[in-house]
Write a structure and sequence with these properties.
Two copies of one chain form a homodimer. Chain A is mainly alpha-helical and 324 residues long. Chain A has 16 helices and two strands. In chain A, 75% of the residues lie in helices and 1% in strands. A two-stranded antiparallel ribbon of chain A has the order 1-2. In chain A, α2 crosses α6. Chain A is globular. The model of chain A has no long low-confidence stretch (mean pLDDT 94). Chains A and B meet through α4, α6 and α7 of A and α4, α6 and α7 of B.
Chain lengths: 324, 324
């Protein structure tokens, strides 16, 4: 009986055995390092879960699923350089532990190794898989570029922000689900539904990230609640607040954004209050619900026996209900 | 009648029409920029020339040939960040004209676009081409890592240096020739000969670069003669000199290497004299001849009608005889 837990275990085993390359050590050690930092591996899990709708031989999707995760971690390694991030999952980032040049070059070879994991796909599927992988990968880069562009702008619209997170985060979740179907012969309509399911759930997932940073339970959240507020990160909440705030709300919001020297807790409390007053919390929760519903509807509409969808269904519900 | 000049023209036309992506402009403009800086395009030309041995339909190799050139320029964009290089072909490097983050991310998407150019290869060839492309690409990264490692070492051996330039430069020339054969149905023995031809000529080519930097004709060379000497770049000549120099040659060589404040012309003249006295010039010229001969022998041994090899032969002789 296939369960998300079983597939995750198989994935972890495969990753623990996988070799990315040996010499020179300076080039390959950072790949082992970032992969060892963990992460929920939910992208490759989505691929295996969607493959298992169409076949009991989900193993044939294992290496391509791993390609998605290796690609994702490559983007983290390079994004951390660009974002000047000191920590990743509580540990030093690659450019901090080694240096920026090492993180650039190890990331490059990591992207190449992701493509290596696509080898072995049946020849008649290779062209389609490669085309979709490339398109998704380029879109993720486009999303990161937009994210960096937005750092310098204070007039980012809701639509622009949603498009950015779609590219940076959601398309890879869409592709992860689509890939499982692609590898196991799902028809075009099913592939589109799988993609839509992943893309919409990715949107909900990212917006929930934004929401939990402010309104998450500190005991469960693991990071400092309000971290995004402290750093003026342009989240969905801040962008909404900037577009809505008038009068004293606007004055207050701009005061806290521009404050160079401030008490962190005081800023978090003040901005959180503004969010509440402007109904940003409710509005964001509603958006998240809408995206998750669209995603679940796409899965529901997938023309496959309900029984075969159970493992994916189980996992997706865990994703939707997470509160940390 | 196929000639190297005709194929080069077709390549230039194809590159001038090729679109790498549009939005966001910050992401894609640097790709257009670095590709517009020119370069001899001899890697994709090698692919078309080897394809034209086996088929008159060399056009089927055009996009894969372009993939090799786009990959090569991706490595230049990222290497320039790592080497902190201000200029590339006399123009500002991407990280100078924009910034390092842009050069990282545009490079990333450029590597993805190189893979895009492999789409359209016949399905039954795709797996083999992708595997060889990946292996070559990873080796080029390994070569760049070794090159960076060597900057911090003064005990690099001749064998280590030759292995580094093999990885950083030669394997891509080997693959460029092999690819033309791969796409047009050359047998395994021929593929190995094509690869050996490119790899050995790549070695000769890189060593000639090292040699011309010191002993090139200033009127033809285009760069400052002795630039490598001024910057203590670990070329084949310097590594040989370090392994041979004894007595006053050693003292003099170490003096100039360690000199913080010096007259550039004086240093170039003094180190050049040491190279001459230690027979490094003759030795390097001999090595270059050996590699070119091995390369030419591999081509000679290629089981194909002599008439079909003429265009490749013509071009290879231009490469061997270049003095700038």
């Amino acid at each position: 009986m296939i369960t998300p837990e079983l597939l995750l275990q198989e994935l972890q085993t495969a990753f623990s055995k996988h070799k990315y390359g040996a010499e020179p050590g300076e080039l390959y050690a950072p790949i082992g390092y970032i992969m060892s930092l963990g992460g929920k591996r939910f992208r490759p899990l989505l691929t295996l879960l969607s493959a298992s709708i169409y076949t009991d031989e989900w193993q044939s999707a294992l290496r391509p699923a791993m390609a998605v995760e290796v690609f994702h971690n490559f983007t983290l390694m390079h994004d951390d350089i660009m974002d000047n991030a000191p920590l990743r999952r509580g540990e030093p980032t690659v450019h901090e532990k080694w240096n920026a040049n090492t993180a650039i070059l190890s990331g490059d070879v990591m992207l190449i190794r992701a493509y290596d994991l696509l080898l072995g796909i049946r020849p008649e599927l290779m062209g389609k898989v490669l085309a979709r992988f490339n398109q998704t990968a380029a879109e993720v880069c486009e999303g990161q570029q937009l994210d960096m562009n937005f750092e310098k702008r204070w007039d980012v619209t809701e639509a622009e922000y949603l498009n950015m997170i779609r590219l940076k985060t959601s398309v890879l979740l869409g592709f992860a689900l689509e890939l499982g179907g692609l590898l196991t012969g799902a028809d075009e309509a099913s592939l589109q539904l799988l993609y839509a399911a992943g893309e919409n759930m990715g949107m909900g997932f990212q917006l929930k990230d934004d929401l939990l940073d402010v309104f998450g339970d500190p005991a469960k959240f693991g990071k400092q609640v309000g971290g995004d507020i402290i750093s003026n990160k342009k989240t969905f909440l801040l962008i909404e607040a900037l577009s809505r705030a008038e009068g004293t709300y606007r004055t207050d919001l701009e005061y806290w954004i521009n404050a160079a020297d401030f008490d962190k807790n005081e800023k978090v409390q003040a901005v959180t209050k503004i969010y509440e007053a402007l109904d940003i919390r409710t509005f964001t929760e509603q958006k998240i619900r809408e995206y998750f519903e669209k995603g679940l509807n796409a899965l529901e509409g997938l023309p496959a026996p309900d029984g075969r969808k159970i493992p994916l269904w189980q996992f997706v519900h865990q994703l939707v209900e997470r509160d940390k």
